[in-house]
Every structure is written in C-alpha cells, then in structure tokens.
Amino acid sequence: MFTLIWFEMIKRHYLVWIALLLVGTSCENLLFDEDLASTSPHENFDYLWKECHEKYSYFELKGIDWNEVKTEYRNQLYVGMSEDSLFNVMGAMLTELKDDHANLISNFKTSFFGVEYQAQKNFDWRIIVDRYINPNFLISGSFSHNFIAGHQIGYIRLPTFSQQINPESLDYILDRYRDTEGLILDIRDNGGGAIANVFTILSRFVDTEQLVYYSRIKAGPEPNNFSPVKGAYVQPYSGIRYSKKVVVLTDRGTYSSGSLLALATKALPNMSLIGDTTGGGLGIPNGGQLPNGWRYRFSITQTLSLDQSEKFERGVPADLPVNLDWNDLTTDEILEAAIKEIL
Amino acid sequence: MKAITLIHSHFQWMCTILGVVFSVAIHTTGWAQNKPTDQETESHQKGRPEYIVISAGYNAASFRDFATSPLFYSGSAVYTSLAHTDIDLVRESSFTASYSTGNFVADFNETDLKSKVHTFSLNFLELFQLQSLSSSSFNIKLGGQFNSTMNIRNNEKLLNNSEGVDLISTLFASAKGTLDISRKKTTEKKFLFIRYTAKKRVRKLSYTLNVGCINSSYRNGFAYTSSSAPINDDAFFSDYEFRIFRGFRINSALNYTLFMENKNAIQFSYLWDAYRTGGHHDNFEMAAHTIKCSLLFGLK
C-alpha cells in the first residue's frame, strides 16, 4: 500500500523529484575547499612567502634567513595599500633571493634581481663586428659566425638559447670551420632559454657519452628535502662533430641555460671558459599563481657540479678571468685572450 | 535490506542523508511490490536490448589545481561520447568513452590566465535489478562502476608548470532508479488553444548516483615541475606519483529516454561529476555539468 502511494507520488511529481535531486547532488561547493581568491595584501604576501619557504632550492647556499625576510617585509604591508605598493613590497621580497629566476609578474609590472648589473658589462657586439668578423658575417639559425685570426679560428656567436637550434645550422657551421685550429663560442649576454639546446650544442664536441653535471629537485617542504641526484649526460652526435679546442666566452649576462653550458665545459677536456663569472641561474624555475591572480616563479632545483657541489649557483667561474677594457673600444680583450688560448 | 551507505571523512553527512532517503524508500516498499514474474525475467535476459549510443553535448566546468594556483578556473567545453549498452529490467552493462575540450579562465582581479583542457574518460558500468524494490513501473538497480578520467591541461602563463596531466581512477558504488512514464494510449490534448494528438510513447526517466569507494590519482609530485628537463631527459612522468584511498568522487546522471518504434531511442541527459584528489600541497578539484543529447541505435 505504502509502496503504491510512493510510486504514484514519484510518477505524478517527477519534476519535483528531479529538482530535488539536482539541488541535492549538484552542489560541488560542498566538496571543494573554500575559495581563496583575494586581493588582501597580507593573504597574498603570506601565500607567496610560504610557497618560497617550502619550494625554493637555494636558501642554505645563499645564506638567506627567510623568516627574517618575512618579518622585514610583512611589516611594510597595510590594509588598503595600492596594488603598485603591494607589488613593490612582494617584488622586493623576491629580490632578496638574488636570483633572476625569481620573479613576481602582474599585469602591469615584473620584478627582477638583475644579476648582470652586479658587475661590469663585458660584451659589445659592435666591437666584434667592426674589428673581428666584419659586417658580412654569416647567420645560420640562431648563430652569427665567421672566420677570425686569419682563417685559423671560427668565431660563433649565440645570443640566446630561446630558439630551437636546428641540426642543419650546426652541420653547416662545423663543416665550414672543420679545418680551423679551434672554435670560439661566444655566449656572453646570453640570458638562457631551452636546456635542450645546451645538449644539442655539446653533443657536437664529445666523442663518447659524458657526464657533465647533476641535478636534484625539491621533494618536500623541509629545507633540505630534495630528490636523489640525477646525472646529466651528453651523448655524441652521430653526424658532424668537432674535436679540436673550443673556448667558450662568458660574462655576468650569461645566465640559466648559458650557465649550464658553462658548467658542462668543466667536465669536457677540450673546452674551456674565458671571460667573467656567469650570472648563475642553474636552478630551474617553476611557475604559479597567487590569490590575487599575479604570477610568480622561483628556482626549485639545484644543479650540482661533478663533485656534487651546488656552489656554482653563484656563478660558474671562468678558467681564465678577463674583463673588457672600456677605455679601448678597438679591442675585445676577452676575445683576444681566447684567440691566444687557441693559437 | 538497507540501502548501501558510504561513510567518508569529509562527506559523511551527505552520504548519511542519501542513506536515509534510500532507507525510507526501502522501508515503505518492503512488503508491497509488483515483482516481475520469473517468465518475464527469463525472456528479458535472453533478448536483452543492445544499443550503440552516440552523444554530443556541452559541458560547463570549473577546476582548481592547488599545485599551481589557488584560483578556480571556469569555462565550457564541447562534449562527445560513444558507448555500448546492454540494458533491460534485470541488468545493465555499459561501456563509454568520452572526450571533452574547452578553455577555462581564472577571471579575478583583471587577470585572464587561460587553461586549455582536454578530458578523456573511460567508464564501465554494471547494474543488477533489486527485485524487492522494483516493479513494472519503477525499477531499481544496484551495482558498480569503474571510471578513469585523464585531464591534459596547458596554461602557458604558468611558465615551467604550464603542462599538467591528471589521471583520476575511481571504483564507484552505483544505484539507479528508472521510472516508466510512458503514455500507454493515444489521447487528445490541448495546449492553450491548440489541440493536438498525443500518441502513445515509451518513455523512461532514470537517475543514477555513483559514489566513489576507491579513489586514486596519478599526478605531478611535490615540485610539480619536471626534474627531467635539467638533465635533458624526455621522461615527462618521471616525478608523477600514484596515490590511492585518497580523495573523493561522486557523480550522477539524469536521463530522459524516448523510445522509437524502430527500436532506436533518443535520450536527453544531465550529468554531474565532481571530484577532488585530496592532499594538502597538490589537491586537485573539478566539477562538471554536462547536458547532452544521445542517439541510441538498437542492435537487437
């Protein structure tokens, strides 16, 4: 009897049941955590500070007391502050990491450390063109190149690792300079880009598999919680390679992938570094978003040398330190040192 | 017999309410029903109708991936699915493959980060009639469902965390109620001043509720960024972690099916799916509302 009444109710009022079921079982807000979208200065500051605290990879190496940084900068916050003022405080906090892989990005500004400005500039392209490779130099993909030193050396300029290096460009370049005494690969002022390009280049200068550095990534929120180290290996390219001396030119503007290439040369006997210490940037940055929609990134890996030291995050030192003399714009002292090294 | 209730840490109250509803339904129907006869059951099993179901629809969803952002991304997606279903009063088996794709935006504080999401899903459902509660006009089935859903997300403005793949696999406890709302005979009707003839039609209204019992996820690890890039390794999933017995998932389907005389059918559905992977650093939450239209092509 009650069953029949129950079914009759459902049949007659099924629209009501549908509505009840929809209301009762479509409320995902009951399953989700609270909405964290907020423009509150304190909430956004705390969120960014905590993310860095748990995931940034170089606090110990750089001797940064992140709790002290929090105290210093959080005191500068106040309710009702403008977005520009909030950005300045949070951006300045990230700058304390002294890392150009640490940036705060809003829709009106981007913060940066500017490691290349911590030392003198050591590169001027016009000196290279006017005094060494002349204006009819060649361009192959991302590379600009020409003979120098009486056709004894091939000079190759790579300003960025951002564009994918195609094998045909390298084939052409290495074939053109195959009879030289050595190559000069100039990566001064190279801010980095795709890491794969580093290995594409290095593969042309090794004849057997070579371990060049190690890497590890943050694996937990504790300061020293890292994954086991993994080795980075360069495999020899199956086509055209170059086995003679290669000198790589670096300066403070050599950053990120440029620093990785510079670090790798330490493991390769036919390659050496001349110029200034690189800017560092060996940690790979992540990417994320704050409660107010701004974005951030900072380093979450460590790159270690073959003796498993992370010290080169401060910069990969040149084997032969040389600076440019800005009083004499007719000569590139770093390039001259490289020519002398090869010849 | 009591309805099956699932007690879960964060959603105990909801499950309890659902359990109460089922318990009341069972108690009031325990001793008065019109059971199908043994002959009817046997004939159903021999000639169980089989359908290929092709669906297309529209999906409104929102998600939040705490590993990269505390903001909800909302948007819409185009939905399509292909299914094979064997169904009669006694038993239902269904295998479904679906795909949806769309753009999702976190529209807060004049930021317009966009995430492109592709969702692939495989679903297997097996239900059996609960004879003690069923009648010729109202059929209840219980059983289980296994679903594996993969989201592939791309948000370029998240820099090295732009790519994300989530694989959510869940074993559900399922319950389905089907109400026969057929028009048994042709009648004359009037809508406002318009007279029309309403022909007899076989129509069914069904509601399926699936509650996750065993939930699992395969997602990026703590740092989210891949550790393979610095060492020039192509292992995209090298830091992915498999977690089981964590998180929660629930979904439901409301279907209105109109059967044709040629053994085919057309179906209008509203689907709701919500899940979270659990955890603190990397909780992923997503909910989707889908409206779809399906063509059921009868194979026998």
What are the main properties of this structure?
heterodimer, A: 343 residues, alpha/beta, seven-stranded mixed beta sheet, three-stranded antiparallel beta sheet, 11 helices, 32% helix, elongated, B: 300 residues, mainly beta, ten-stranded antiparallel β-barrel, two-stranded antiparallel ribbon, 2 helices, 13 strands, disordered N terminus
Q: What's the topology here?
A:
The complex is a heterodimer of chains A (343) and B (300).
Chain A: H1 2-12, H2 14-25, H3 41-55, H4 59-62, H5 66-74, H6 83-95, E1 103-105, H7 125-133, E2 138-140, E3 143-148, E4 153-157, H8 167-176, E5 182-186, H9 195-202, E6 210-217, E7 230-234, E8 245-250, H10 257-265, E9 271-275, E10 288-289, E11 295-297, E12 301-304, E13 320-321, H11 333-342
Helix pairs in contact in A: 1-2, 3-6, 5-6, 9-10
Chain B: H1 12-29, H2 38-46, E1 50-65, E2 73-87, E3 91-108, E4 111-129, E5 138-154, E6 163-180, E7 187-191, E8 194-198, E9 202-219, E10 241-244, E11 248-259, E12 265-276, E13 284-298
Antiparallel strand pairs in B: 1-2, 1-13, 2-3, 3-4, 4-5, 5-6, 6-9, 7-8, 9-10, 9-11, 11-12, 12-13
What does this protein structure show overall?
The complex is a heterodimer of chains A (343) and B (300). Chain A has 343 residues and is of the alpha/beta class. Helices cover 32% and strands 17% of the residues of chain A. Chain A is elongated and about 85 Å long. The mean pLDDT of chain A is 92. By secondary structure, chain B is mainly beta. In chain B, the strands form 2 sheets. A 10-stranded antiparallel barrel of chain B has the order 1-2-3-4-5-6-9-11-12-13. Chain B has a two-stranded antiparallel sheet with strand order 7-8. In chain B, strand 5 and strand 6 form a beta hairpin. Chain B is elongated and about 70 Å long. The two termini of chain B are 35 Å apart. The chains are: A alpha/beta (343), B mainly beta (300). The interface between A and B is large, with 61 and 65 residues.
